[in-house]
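ugh finaly. both done.
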Amino acid sequence: MTTHVLSDTRVLTGRSLRHILRSPDTIITTAVIPIALMLVFVYVLGGAIHTGADVSYINYMLPGILLITIASGIAYTSYRLFLDMQGGIFERFQSMPIARSSVLWAHVLTSVAANLISIVLVIGVALLMGFRSQAPVQAWIAIAGILILFTLTLTWVAVIAGLSAKSIDGASAFSYPLIFLPFISSAFVPTESMPAPIAWFAENQPVTSIVNSIRALFAQQSLGSDIWVALAWLVGVFVIAYALAIVLYRRKSR
């Protein structure tokens, strides 16, 4: 049974990836907004922002930009899922001897692959803009792990949106608050510089702990409790989103 699920997921993921390769503008579009934000913040606003950290501003803000990249990219997952449902693809799959869960996992794994490509593009531009890190290989692996878990978590949220949306606009609109969330965190300025109520929210929302963890790994600093808070948020939301997505999918496929 496990082999059956894995082989079905592999075949359907290949189908979704071919769609991505035929329209690479999707990945480029996903990377354009974060790159534009980097250019504006570093070259226009960076000189007026005081982080209190002994690092260049591009090093300081890159973790937040990477999260925005992922938040922008997952909107396409809900969009493609919605189109598959409207186009009757799901009904065709249900009439075939394939594992039901493989249909959703194919979209999820495609999202991870596409977002990783976008992240590489953004990091490439950041390097051209002066980003530097002496982090060892294991730190980069840890950063990749955090970003992949973040992508998986948000993608399952996107699956819920794609399954429950009533229109194409509704399928992707859910990502806007997620894109905005890093702006109310430690991604671009220290939370200490914010008014008290906003600072409290920024310090206690998941993006801040994730950003702080990635920043510490890049700078080879102590992770402290941020990494455990980040993992708790990511795993908790992942489990809840996955469970809700499966329940919703079963209802839709009856």
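ok and the 2nd:
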Amino acid sequence: MSTLEVMIIAIVQGLTEFLPVSSSGHMVLTEALFGLKVPGITLEIALHFGTFMSVLLVFRKEITHILISFFTKIWRIRQIPLNYREDEWFRMAVLVLLSMIPAILVALFLRDFIEGLFESTRSVGIALIFTGLLLFITQWAPRVRKPLKGWNVLFMGIFQALAMIPGISRSGSTISAGLLAGVDREKIAKFSFIMALPLIVGATILEIPEIKGGSQISLFNISLGMLVAFLTGIVALKWLIKILMRGRLSSFSYYCVLLGFITVALS
């Protein structure tokens, strides 16, 4: 794979990982339309690590507070209810764990079914149409400022699990779920991406054993792809936060629906 092809794939991964248009869906379509298939698991892991680091950079203060609060207080079993009520960062850590439950259950029981969907561009097109419709209805989301609680976080977690289907945007679906549940936009902007970090780490660890022998791509191109995914991920992440705060998330719906119909028609 050439350096230019690696950069194209890295840009697609970095932008679509955070913009509400489905990174997995776009990777499938990129492979089908342009023949730019990721050669082996090594580059895929590098690209995911790059986008992972972009979230760490943008939300470094929040993530640091969450980790310190959780690992210093989780051992005090009897004080967990009190810490949950009084410590915002400890509460967010617990809510992140709660949000992971639906995705873990889907990964355990429906993994083979989900993996099979990556072979079908038609299913990706249908999923993109679903993503577009979901984004479109957010313009009627209630303009309230509810705090993050167990029930609305679990609701976001269900949509995060649903986003394991290629073509359904993880950021788009979780943010839409939070908006429809009436959660404060600023809290959604942070929590939607922070809640995905443990799953990204877990998925990456599970992929490492798939690396067999030497990589089919040079170390330079792997490093370049990771850097490009990291930089484009930062741009996409900050751009989406601004769009969300301005209440224009539904503007992406037209793109997703149009791309979905084109994909279904061509497939």
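summary for the 2nd one i guess: The longest helix spans residues 219-245.
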